[in-house]
Amino acid sequence: MFAYTLLQLKKQYLPRKGTRNVSVNLQGSKVPLYGAGASLTGLVDNGKVPVTLVFEVRSIGNVVGKLVRSKHRRHVSCSVAIDSHNNGPIKLKENACTYN
User: How far, in Å, CA of 80 to CA of 49, rounded?
Assistant: First the structure.
């Protein structure tokens, strides 16, 4: 039911109090719905299909060389309405995602 893809960015050095934003393009083509098409007909509003995008962000940081390693995980869930008439990129609104 879910398509699973692993995306791994190249290693980067970041100072202790530094931050970095990374943009990622997510593209799906001919993704099967496995029989969900019939249940989506009632949900379609003006040609828009509601989709929930769920992913996990993981990072590993070396604090003192490789003596101390800190690992961080963040689960992200975003609600998106996909327009079947528009093939352009979808911009996520600021309050469309929840972080756990």
Answer: 8
